[in-house]
Design brief:
Layout lengths: L5 H55 L9 E2 L21 E10 L6 E2 L3 E10 L5 E10 L6 E3 L5 E4 L4 E10 L6 E10 L5 E12 L1
Parallel strand pairs: 3-10
Antiparallel strand pairs: 1-2, 2-4, 4-8, 5-7, 5-9, 6-8, 9-10
Organism: Bacteroides intestinalis DSM 17393
Protein name: Glycine zipper family protein
Length: 204
């Protein structure tokens, strides 16, 4: 997806965050007192910020097709350590269809460039998975690579899935080389289940 006007996106995110936080706080406080208000405000702020930014971006971005996206092929096999000791429904979540999209559409992370990784998390089990945390991390220690924080997914029903997008940006001082990203599914305690890795070149 093409990027919209940066000013409009930031404004949309700010307005969405403020409105979402206020509404979430009121709803939570009515239901569970100040603790509910705090939790509701936090969740409302996150949801409102994301929604506001998305709406502003969609409204200002030129039309683009997905022909510029890069489907990641070089991935590690899925991995589950000691599955017999992990009865959680999250153990049945699988990562599918990883795609990398960069501003220049050359599949290289250039200095100062904004990119995104899009992937699907599918629930192949028979139970609903709750509090799912998508994880996108850089594992080589490359400096000046910035990844958006994870946003918890409340639940994924059996035989269904969600599409998740993480934003990646490169600083002006990024080195020329190669970076490896790890895509994983974790629970609310940070324990990872299914995961895959892929590499991309970087250019200063």
């Amino acid at each position: 997806m093409a990027a919209g006007d940066p000013g409009a996106v930031l404004a949309g995110a700010a307005i969405g965050g403020n409105v979402g936080g206020a509404i979430g706080g009121l709803i939570g406080e009515n239901n569970r007192g100040w603790r509910g208000g705090y939790r509701g405000s936090a969740i409302g702020t996150i949801v409102g910020t994301i929604a506001g930014a998305a709406i502003a971006n969609a409204a200002t971005a030129p039309k683009q097709t997905e022909e510029y996206s890069y489907r990641v092929e070089r991935t590690q096999p899925t991995y589950n350590s000691r599955p017999e000791a992990r009865p959680s429904a999250i153990n049945n979540l699988k990562i599918r269809n990883i795609r990398f999209i960069d501003d220049s559409r050359d599949h290289v992370i250039n200095a100062g460039e904004n990119c995104k990784v899009v992937f699907e998390i599918m629930n192949e089990g028979n139970r609903t998975a709750f509090n799912v945390v998508p994880v996108v991390a850089e594992v080589t220690g490359m400096k000046h690579v910035y990844i958006s924080p994870s946003v918890m997914i409340e639940q994924i029903a059996p035989r269904e899935g969600v599409k998740y997008t993480a934003s990646i940006s490169a600083g002006e001082r990024i080195k020329t080389g190669e970076v490896i990203f790890r895509i994983a599914v974790a629970d609310e305690n940070g324990e990872e289940y299914d995961w895959q890795e892929f590499s991309l070149p970087t250019q200063r």
